[in-house]
Amino acid sequence: MPNTKRRRLFVRGAAATIAVALGATALAACGSSDEDSAESGPVSLTYWTWTPGMDKVVDLWNKGQGKKDQITVTVKKQASGDTLVTKILTAHKAGKAPDLVQAEYQALPTLVSNDALADIAKNVGDAKSKFADGVWQQTTLGTDAVYAVPQDIGPMMFYYRADLFKQYGLTVPTTWEQFAATARALKEKAPDTDLTTFSANDSGLFAGLAQQAGAKWWTTSGDKWNVGINDAATKKVADFWGGLVKEGAIDNQPMYTPAWNKALNTGKQIAWVSAVWAPGTLTTAAPDTKGKWAMAPLPQWSNSENVTGSWGGSSTAVTTDSKHKEAAAEFAAWLNTDGDALNALAKESGIYPASTSAQLSGAFTTPPDYFSNQADFYTTAAKIAKTTAPSAWGPNVNVAYTTFKDAFGAAAKDKSDFSAALDKMQADTVADLEKQGFEVSE
User: Fold this and answer.
1) Which of 241, 237, 258, 256 has its CA nearest to residue 198?
2) Burial, 392: exposed, middle or buried (Cβ in 10 Å; 0-12, 13-18, 19+)?
3) How far apart, in Å, are the Cα atoms of 337 and each of 64, 148, 210, 224, 225?
4) How does residue 39 score in pLDDT terms, banded at 50, 70 and 90?
5) CB atoms inside a 10 Å sphere around CB 389
6) What pTM value is reported for the model?
7) What is the pLDDT at residue 40?
8) Does the keyword RNA-binding apply (predicted)?
9) How many whole angstroms separate alpha carbon 256 and alpha carbon 239?
């Protein structure tokens, strides 16, 4: 099969189908008789993942379905984020990538554009039926191909100190306008207390908020990428948060610091826009406030809307270097759709499953211990998860995220114009795409 300079994907949006060029240097992946013959005997697979406790989950496979099918999986623990993506691409260039990799959703276009992930559409059975459409779309990039099986998701929601909201006479905001009014009202009643903070040390939070507002950071027209990081939807989000920071209605300090932990633990900060995994963070950040928090849907931009963004989540993918793609795809589907596997993932790894059926079963029939006061925590979370807006990732998310941390970090600290920081993200992302050889629309 001849080499090709372009891998053409077709990304289907809500109302239209558009062609996407995903890379200038990808090679066409071809099947071989070696792979076909390899599936007839014992198969050994290697899986790169950062998920804690994954070895215990994989043991279930090796002792059960894997033993029956003569497919053994070995877990190789890795770092997460850009570090893993770089390691995968480096291994792939040498033709030595593992059979399976864990990949965050926003990393999939980068891996696909480098021809590192195999299309496993014919090998995952009816897996699509186990996931919400918006989640499944992230692993197909809107095409007929399937580049991974969804594992976990991070639908965003609003967390608040129920006791302090009552003490200060505050109402849980259902719109962002109400959110801003709540922040100002709290400042009037307790000047030393903040509703929340704008943090620039985790790009995923801002990306999720933009996603909720309808942003499409990477789209395509023909063979060209369109970069819309400073589009109207994202500008609305940036101006909203920048305005609150500038007027002092909310804090401007980063998350995950000792100071942030203390603010949450002492009631100096009484709310947090986060995702479904927040209970685990609050358990260690604010241990003295266990049982005092509650969760509600994310505020909306209008009363008629019901949508949330996504912050985090990952998938299980099969690499083009694997000699046993069919077996690897079988394992990936089992890992993320089998009831016992998903229960084990919840127990051992603390993940929130992408599988819709698993969101209301097993470990998710009772609330997190930290939220024992909110019996409907997971039923509410499952409803929110169904409203997740479609994503629009591109092949250089890492560049956009790095610029966000630098530009928005400085803007938050100085209480300066967030729009200028957004324009910097746009310019850096476009420049990097062009440097890599991608065609970018003006």
Assistant:
1) 241
2) buried
3) 15, 13, 30, 36, 34
4) low
5) 21
6) 0.88
7) 63
8) no
9) 24
